[in-house]
Automatic annotation (TrEMBL):
Residues 35-99 form the RRM domain. This is RRM domain-containing protein. It comes from Dichanthelium oligosanthes. It comes from the Eukaryota. Keywords: RNA-binding.
Length: 105
């Protein structure tokens, strides 16, 4: 008898109606325009100078940096570019978005 009461209590405690339906995904907020770009998908041989030259085609690059592995010295496949203005950064993003390669200097 106690086992039957325990089972029914167990069912009530874990009944499906106790769980709320999943919330719909909320759209990611749009980032404010920025002159800074995060660049991914770089070759291991991409240098900071190569990154700078590739993005300079679209505006004045104030700073560029390829993140490298401390041991090997090769690119970790990503870096950062900062333009003089948000408008130039947008041109650089649009111009380089999906582009397959960057010069290896």
């Amino acid at each position: 008898m106690a086992a039957a009461a325990a089972r029914s209590g167990f069912r009530r405690m874990f009944s499906v109606s106790a769980f709320a339906p999943p919330k719909p995904p909320t759209p990611r907020p749009q980032a404010d325009p920025s002159p800074n770009l995060f660049v991914s998908g770089l070759s291991k041989r991409t240098s900071t100078e190569g990154l700078r030259k590739a993005f300079a085609e679209f505006g004045e690059v104030v700073h560029a940096r390829v993140v490298t592995d401390r041991v090997t010295g090769f690119s970790k496949g990503f870096g950062f570019v900062r333009y003089a203005s948000t408008e130039e950064a947008e041109k650089g993003r649009e111009g380089m978005d999906g582009k397959g390669s960057i010069a290896h200097h």
